[in-house]
Every structure is written in structure tokens, then in C-alpha cells.
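in:
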């Protein structure tokens, strides 16, 4: 198995402040680094209006992360993000196809 480059975009609860959002992001990215992957860049887009209401919310905190990891690590990250109460939506794209 070899590592691949991924782009993760997630939308977090709009109620989270900047510190809470950074803490949440770092908590999940620890999964990548613990498994020997690397975080290549994190971009906080801030609060934005959602295209449509999700879980009763009309806004969300957007975060985009580029990372390198094994497919299994990426799957686990996705699974954990989907279980999180603070994460409204996630999408992971493989960048090196």
C-alpha cells in the first residue's frame, strides 16, 4: 500500500468560534499524522452561507485540508468526521489519480 494525496473539505457547526474550529480540525488531523501521513496545508475559509439548509443550519464553517496518507487512514478519518456532532458535511477527494 502506498500513500496518496487527498483534499478534505468539511463544514463545521457555525456556532464554533475560531479556536474551537482549529481545535476540532487538529484533533482529526492527528489521525493522519499518528498513522505516518502528513498534513500539507490547512485553509480556514470561515463562516459561509450554505447553498441549502443542512441539519437545520443555514451557515457553516468551511475548512479545506490537503494531506497525504494511506487509503485506510483516509477512510478512518472520513468515518470519524461523519460521526462528529460538530461536523455538518465532509468530502474527501483523492488528488493524485
Amino acid at each position: 500500500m502506498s500513500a496518496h494525496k487527498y483534499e478534505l473539505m468539511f463544514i463545521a457547526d457555525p456556532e464554533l468560534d475560531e479556536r474551537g474550529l482549529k481545535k476540532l480540525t487538529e484533533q482529526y488531523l492527528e489521525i493522519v499524522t499518528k498513522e505516518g501521513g502528513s498534513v500539507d496545508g490547512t485553509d480556514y475559509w470561515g463562516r459561509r452561507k450554505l447553498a441549502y439548509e443542512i441539519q437545520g443550519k443555514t451557515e457553516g464553517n468551511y475548512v479545506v485540508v490537503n494531506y497525504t496518507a494511506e487509503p485506510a487512514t483516509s477512510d478512518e478519518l472520513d468515518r470519524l468526521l461523519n460521526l462528529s456532532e460538530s461536523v455538518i458535511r465532509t468530502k474527501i477527494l483523492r488528488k493524485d489519480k
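note: The chain has two helices and four strands.
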